[in-house]
Amino acid sequence: MEDIDLARSILEEDKWNLVIVKKGRVLFGSRERGIAPFFQAVQSIGKSLHNAAVADRIVGLAVAMLCLHVRVRSVYAGIVSQEAFDMLKKMGVAIDSKNTVAHISNYDGTDLCPFEKLAGSCQKPSQLLAALESLLGKGDR
Question: How far is CA 88 from the centre of its chain?
Answer without folding.
Answer: 11
